Amino acid sequence: MSDGGEDVVDLLGDDYVRTILAETREEPKSVEALSDACDADPSTIYRRVERLEAAGLLTDEQRLDPGGHHYKEYDAVLEAVHVHVRAEGYEIDVDYVEEEEPADRFTRLYEEFK
Q1: What is the rounded CA–CA span in Å between residue 93 and residue 83?
Q2: What is 12-70 written as a DSSP string?
Q3: Residue 13 CB partners (closer than 8 Å, separation 6+)
Q4: How far, in Å, CA of 53 to CA of 27, rounded?
Q5: What is the pTM of this model?
Q6: For the chain, what is the domain count?
Q7: What is d(CA 57, CA 45) in angstroms, rounded to the nearest whole number?
Q8: C or N terminus of the chain, fewer CB within 10 Å?
Q9: Cβ(62)–Cβ(75) below 8 Å
């Protein structure tokens, strides 16, 4: 069994978790946007987001809105989950999105603030 594999499988059994991961796959989203996508209370989404961050499947980034308020946006880092069934049991492998290079991240952040 790969480290954390069972936790990932348990998490993926939750409809809200699957929606959060799908919604944050292409671009980061706020809890408000995820709450709308899941048709759930923000408190429900915050609990799922915390579990996903603890499992290493979601990251957050602080944002500044035009009104000067701070909020977080969440980004999925889960690429794939592979379940291998064998006679002696099963094995779970988790693939993660490759991390962005620091120079690319700086350029992206700079472009967002323009």
Answers
A1: 7
A2: HTSHHHHHHHHHTTTS-EEHHHHHHHHTS-HHHHHHHHHHHHHTTSEEEEEEE-TTS-E
A3: none
A4: 16
A5: 0.76
A6: 1
A7: 15
A8: C
A9: no
- Give the pair of three-digit tokens for residue 99: 């991390």
pLDDT band per the 50, 70, 90 thresholds, residue 24: very high
Q: What are phi and psi of 36, to 5 degrees?
A: -65, -45
Residue 94, domain extent: 5-113
Cβ atoms of residues 74 and 34 within 8 Å: yes
59-105 confidence digits (pLDDT tens): 999 888 777 788 899 999 988 888 889 999 888 888 888 765 566 65
Residue 96's CATH number: 1.10.10.10
Task: Output the six-digit token pair for 53.
Answer: 């961050």
CA dihedral of residues 50, 84, 98, 76 (deg, nearest 10): -30
